[in-house]
Amino acid sequence: xxxxxxxxxxxxxxxxxxxxxxxxxxxxxxxxxxxxxxxxxxxxxxxxxxxxxxxxxxxxxxxxxxxxxxxxxxxxxxxxxxxxxxxxxxxxxxxxxxxxxxxxxxxxxxxxxxxxxxxxxxx
Length: 123
Known about the structure:
- The protein has 5 helices and 2 strands; from the N terminus they run αααββαα.
- By secondary structure, the chain is mainly α.
């Protein structure tokens, strides 16, 4: 994983885990790697991973079983909300970038429609 120097590493770890949840590479109820394993995998300080895990637990995305590790919530509604939140962030970023390029709402909708039609032929 390549880290962006402009964003705290623990935030990037949170986003990485959330992304894997949304893509279902990590499933509801699944145990996350231990702090030590994750820190070795990502080549970061264990305290950084611990901070990310604590924030995920605060957001009720994960929970800790004493002596057993950190697990993903089994609350499917929470995971659906997470997926929607992440999609809104992507959409808002896209819209902001398009407006900075000078596109108006109608042009943005038209471009998206054209792209989606083109992808229908590809699939």
